[in-house]
Write a structure and sequence with these properties.
single chain, about 240 residues, alpha/beta, six-stranded mixed β-sheet, four-stranded antiparallel β-sheet, about 35% helix, globular
């Protein structure tokens, strides 16, 4: 399916200072619907800080706007987020249902399962082939299984923008391939905009619609071919 072309997330002049040190400087780029934008850069380039700014988790200047071209106006943006990792104890007595329900429902989950909520969660997990994990203990999940659960939570309800911070860190090769193929399916089926930080340049080359090279500020942006051929890329990655 072609991107509808009618929605655009505009990231405008995002800057972050911590203890008077400029971590991010005037970062601006657009993410169109149905587009996977991957952010690359050396360690310490400010990639994760940029994501935290987009999520309003750090103080920053600049703004994020979601523009509906069909109605010719800005709308409130819905953002889903998948972190790099979660600190989960192996013996944690929490099921996938418990964790999922705590994110999407105000109902207490510690006493009794809500049948309607259980089915809703099961259907959300089904999109990612993870419905069979609903009663599993979170601490017993593999890295790939946990990422599928987090992706299901982040896309319930379907967001305008999905943000992922190195989401396949610690996931094996097969799990990584499956994860990226799932992302491609998401952006195609739901016309979703996705921003993803990655250090794996082969995956960037294979899956990115757009690449942003960051080193406190944007050094280059465009297709993976355009960015990889730039002198700025060669100076950083050799």
């Amino acid at each position: 399916m072609e991107a509808c072309g009618l929605h655009c997330t505009k990231i405008q002049n995002i800057s972050v200072k911590i203890n008077h040190e400029e971590i991010i400087k005037n970062v601006s780029f657009d993410v169109h619907c149905g587009e996977l934008t991957m952010i690359i850069g050396r360690n310490g380039a400010g990639k994760s800080t940029l994501l935290k700014a987009l999520l309003n988790e750090v103080e920053h200047t600049g703004k994020v706007e979601f523009f509906d071209m069909k109605e010719n106006k800005n709308k409130k943006i819905k953002i889903g987020y998948v972190p790099q990792s979660l600190n989960i104890e192996k013996n944690m007595p929490t099921t996938v249902y418990d964790m999922f329900a705590s994110y999407i429902s105000d109902k207490p989950v510690c006493f009794k399962k809500d049948k309607q909520l259980y089915e809703q969660i099961k259907n959300a997990l089904k999109i990612f082939g993870a419905e069979n994990l609903i009663d599993n203990m979170v601490g017993n999940l593999s890295g790939g299984e946990l990422q599928r659960i987090l992706l299901a939570i982040a896309t319930t309800p379907i967001p305008n923008l999905l943000i992922l911070d190195e989401p396949v860190s610690g996931v094996d090769t097969n799990g990584t391939r499956d994860f990226y193929e799932t992302l491609v399916g998401l952006k195609d089926k739901y016309d979703m905009s996705i921003i993803l930080v990655s250090h794996d340049l082969e995956l960037v080359k294979k899956f990115a619609d757009k690449v942003v090279l960051l080193d406190k500020e944007i050094l280059a942006q465009g297709t993976s071919k355009e960015v990889f051929m730039s002198k700025e890329f060669k100076e950083i990655f050799g």
